[in-house]
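Hi, here's the filled form for the chain we discussed.

Project: internal
Contact: R.S.
Residues: 202
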Amino acid sequence: MKFNKWILILVLGAITLVIISLPKNNAVSLSKTQDDSLAVIKHRKEKDISMKEQEDSPIKNKENFKGLHYYPFSSAWQIEFELEKNSKVDKIAMPMSDGTKEDMIYIGDIKAQINGQEVRLKLYQHDNGDFFLPFKDKTAPTETYGGGRYLDIPLINLNGKKLKADFNLAYFPFCAYNPEYACPVPPASNLLNFSIPAGEKN
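And the returned structure, exactly as it came back:
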């Protein structure tokens, strides 16, 4: 009986160790990644429909429009930044692609470690409270629009000082499709010396 008792104890101990060592978070993170990927795909499909059907679409030849082009979804480009807000809300005159300027709310800077270096970018805010990040990276102009890309970040992505930005949702300004539109020009501080292969591409 003693022998059987110790065998049982050893088996139960081994099972406990296996259960403890299982990567429990993998199922959660995988599900979250899948949800994020599906949400991005849905967003892209809805945008294609909007570009083809909406009256204010910058696409001139809507009949031949087959949809926009994108990099594959990658959770690696869901970056958590730290937001350093200004002590007071500032409105700045942002240069536009047609040489004019438009007032925009400059909310502060965001910073994060990306590709082994600290990145610091200027962040702006739409009238509805969501954030606006104009940027340009090394994919321009060969893989993405030469004038840079934009990223809208929902206000709900802000948790304290942490702001999650999903570059899979990066998009071209309307002036990339139609020169009749004027678009904000990313500031020099938001020019990145590395590539972000995520979001919309040529």
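Let me know if anything looks off before we file it.
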